[in-house]
Amino acid sequence: MAAAGGAVRGGVKGGGGGKAEGSLAYRAWRQYLLQLQQHPLRTKMITAGCLAGVSDSVAQKLSGYQNIEKRRLFLKMLFGFAYGGPFGHFWHKILDYIFKGKKDTKTIAKKVLLEQLTSSPWNNILFLFYYGYVVESKEAFEGGEGQGEETISFRAIERLDGMYFASGFDTCL
């Protein structure tokens, strides 16, 4: 850890490291890793918020929006910052405790399976409700036509199905 901190603060150590080590991207990456070691929760919260914002901006542009919806962008960033970052941080601490810090391939596969069966469905459902209630300001439950009972919207089920399938890929990355 001291070597990483020295390289970040003092520039390239030894002067013979080549162009890449002195680049802005390399120094930024080293600083990010240092922050991740020194302040893991804060760094993960900020990272989750920024990634949520970038992904929503790209999604809006690819969907044909002429202008970025700033309220939607902010609310998605808030979800990443306030929930995604902290939940992921503490969830992986729990997994490390359960699996006693092992890092072999078999243990990683078990962690991925456990995550896909437990936290991924929960996170997807929670996000869908957050998105529906807060971001789109819509009711998640709609009254059935003349039946007097509440039914969940079919559109929400479609989204959940697609997100659950896709969530298998996010853990592997």
Entry keywords:
single chain, 173 residues, mainly alpha, 3 domains, two-stranded antiparallel sheet, 2 strands, disordered N terminus, disordered C terminus
Q: Any idea how many domains?
A: 3
Question: What is the H/E order?
Answer: HHHHHHHEEH
- Total number of helical segments? 8
Global mean pLDDT: 80
- Spatial order of the strands in the main sheet? 1-2
Q: Radius of gyration, rounded?
A: 21 Å
Number of E strands: 2
Strand proportion, as a percent range, falls in under 5%
Span of the ends, CA to CA: 25 Å
Q: Could you say which overall geometry the principal axes of the C-alpha atoms support?
A: globular
Largest sheet: 2 strands, antiparallel
| Uncertain regions spanning at least 5 consecutive residues | 1-16, 163-173
- Given the helix and strand composition, which structural class is it? mainly alpha
Q: What proportion of the residues is helical, as a percent range?
A: over 70%
Detailed description of the structure:
The protein is mainly alpha-helical. Helix 7 (119-135) packs across helix 8 (154-172). 75% of the residues lie in helices and 3% in strands. It folds into three domains: 1-38; 40-98; 102-173, no CATH class. The chain has eight helices and two strands, in the order αααααααββα. Belongs to the peroxisomal membrane protein PXMP2/4 family. It is found in: Membrane.
